[in-house]
Every structure is written in structure tokens, then in C-alpha cells.
Amino acid sequence: MLANALRDRLSRLWTRGETLPRVEGSEPLLSENDVQQCLRIAFGGTLGFVLLKWMDWTYGTFFVVNPILLLALVPVLNASIARQFLASVFLNNAFTLVVQGLFGDNPAIMLLLVLGMQLVLFNCMSRGPLFLFGALSVVGMHVQLNFASYPSTDISDLVWCNFVGGGTTLSIVALMHYCFPDKAPRQPPSRPAKPPSNRRHEVLLTTAVAMVVYVMFQVLDLSDSLSAQIASILILFPMNWFGAIQASIRRAAGTLVGCNVAVAIQLVLMTHYSLLWLVALGLWLSLMLFARHHVMERVGSGAGLGAMTTMAILFGQYMSPDKDLIYSALYRTSSVLVAVCSAMLLIYLMHALLNRFAATRLIRPAA
């Protein structure tokens, strides 16, 4: 009887979207909104993957990673979010076509133009209301400019895939919100006021590190290190040294877990990785597991998001009916760890330098 009463009580809490009192050391119960978001992420990422492979499109990051980022970073969909996402797609494509097309053979001019654009985008992120536009534009611009810098890349195909991927992503996100809507209204996140010195600190720190990452990927032959490139940018999202510490640890852990799960799925499938429905099932199960961890972290860019984007890149960019992902997964693990450690060193050095001046000193809020 006691067990039945407890089960009934848990059922009532679940259906009303309430949570149990938090016990130290225990996990919080997911609300109904959290479950719906997990379903949106898992089905949205898998649908993007199936469409990518079924239509034989290239550049899987536009079709698998983008839906996961949009569904994970923003748990709602409205006109402002749709406009920011589409604006990031148009900006990246225009920048790639015009700037890369006109000045791609002049590194000095390209460096100055990319520097100016990074300052604008990180300023949008620091101010808050246009954070999504800035974040998606920064990630997309680094990926596209890196792809476009290689002579073997067809820039028109790259831009076209981004346009198609943008429309596909927004359609998938809208469909997921229609199929798995929130059960209760969400409260908009609070945006604490920042002193001007904090905004200057954040913009200069992130721009400097992002530019070093951009230069390194242009100078070195790192065309096969997409995960490392994205990881180096995602850990900048907290926009300060203290947040980046936790973000880098979570990102490295998420990448390690994501690669191991991808290898495990590959070993389970053995020689059957050419069967799309089997691969899609494995991807859905892993995305559902990582999405649950992501919503329970409640930190935005954490280990759950790192694992999901790693899975999306491995399955979307590197797995094909005639190619497995064992080598790609192992390579991704080492490259991401090196990239994250290098980026953290740069972030610390910039943080220490900027804190020497009152105009750019980071003022931490009182605990």
C-alpha cells in the first residue's frame, strides 16, 4: 500500500509538471517542459540526419548540428528567434560570398574584415537581446570561412547548402515545437545589468581568442577538425574566464562521452552501418540520453550539448554507407582536447591582461 501511494504521488507530480524537493546529491525530477524539450532535440536532430542522408546533401553541420543548437540553446520558438536565426544564415552567406570572394587571396584584408565582424557579433552577445544571432553567426562564420579557404571547396555549393540547411532547420524546429509543445508557459531568463567595463572585457577577450582560432585554422591544415573548431568557439559563450573554465571542462567531457558512444554504436552495428534506419535509431537514442543531461545541467553550453554536437558532427559529416566513423571519433577526441586546452590558455592570458586596466576590468557580482 505504501508503494502504491508513493507511485500515485509521483504520477500526480509528473502530470502537473511539479518537481520533488531537491535532496543534496540527488538529481532533480524533470518537468513536463523538460521532457518535451528532450523529445524535440532527439527527434529534430534525427530528422535532420535522415533528410541529409536521404537527399545526399553535403555539409552535415548545416542539417544536423544547427537544429540541435537551436532546439537546445533556446527552448522556445517565436518570431524574434526565427529572425535572428535567418539573419545569421544570410550574414554568413553574404560574408562568405562577398568578402571571401573578393579578398580571399589577401590575408591582411581578410584578417581586418573578420576582426571587425567578430567585434560586432560578440558585442551583440554581450548586450543580451541579440545573443542568439551573435552566437550562431560566430559559429557559422568560422565553419564557413574555414571550408571556403580550401581550393577544393565549391563556395557556391557551400553557400547553397547553408541556405537549404537554414530553411530545413527552421522547418524542423517549427515542426518539433508543434509536435512536442511545452505544457506550461516558460519564464524568460533574467539579464542582469553589466557595467561598461564588463562588456568591454567580454567583447575584447572573446574577439581576441576567436581571431587566434581563426588564424590557426587558416594557417594549419585542419580541414578535418570541425569538432575542435566548434569546441573552441562554444567555450567562449560564457564570455569570461570564470565561465569558460566550467564550459571547457564540460565541453571536453561531453566530447569524450559523445565519441565513445559513437564508437559503441558503430561496434553494435558492425557491418550494418549502411542501413539508415539502424543508424538513425542509434542516433535518436544517444540524443535523447544527452538531451536529458543537457536540460538537467541548465547551463546552456555544457557537457550534454557537447556530446550532442559531437554525435551530430560524427554522424552528419563523416558517416556514410561506405565509411565508418571509428577513426573520426578517435581523432576528434584528441583534437578537441588540444583545442580546448589551447583556447583556455589564451582566455586566461587575455583575462589577466584586460584586468590590468580599469576600463576593461571584469567586475564579478557579489555572491
Describe the structure.
There is one protein chain. By secondary structure, this protein is mainly alpha-helical. 72% of the residues lie in helices and 0% in strands. It has helices at 2-15, 32-55, 65-73, 79-103, 107-127, 131-148, 155-179, 196-219, 226-234, 241-269, 276-297, 303-318, 326-354. Mean pLDDT is 82; it is low at 9-27.
Which secondary structure elements does this structure contain, and how are they paired or packed?
Elements: H1 2-15, H2 32-55, H3 65-73, H4 79-103, H5 107-127, H6 131-148, H7 155-179, H8 196-219, H9 226-234, H10 241-269, H11 276-297, H12 303-318, H13 326-354
Helix pairs in contact: 2-3, 2-7, 2-11, 3-7, 3-12, 4-6, 4-7, 5-6, 5-8, 6-9, 8-13, 9-13, 10-11, 10-12, 10-13, 11-12
Short structural description:
With 367 residues, the protein is an all-alpha fold.
Secondary-structure element order, N to C = HHHHHHHHHHHHH
Could you tell me the mean pLDDT? Answer: 82
Radius of gyration: 21 Å
Based on secondary structure, the structural category is: mainly alpha
Q: What characteristic shape results from the CA principal axes?
A: globular
Strand content: under 5%
Largest sheet: none
Which assembly state applies to the chains in this document?
single chain
Instruction: Give the uncertain stretches in residue-range form.
Output: 9-27
Total strands: the figure is 0
**What is the CA-CA span between the terminal residues?**
46 Å
Number of helices: 13
Helix content: over 70%
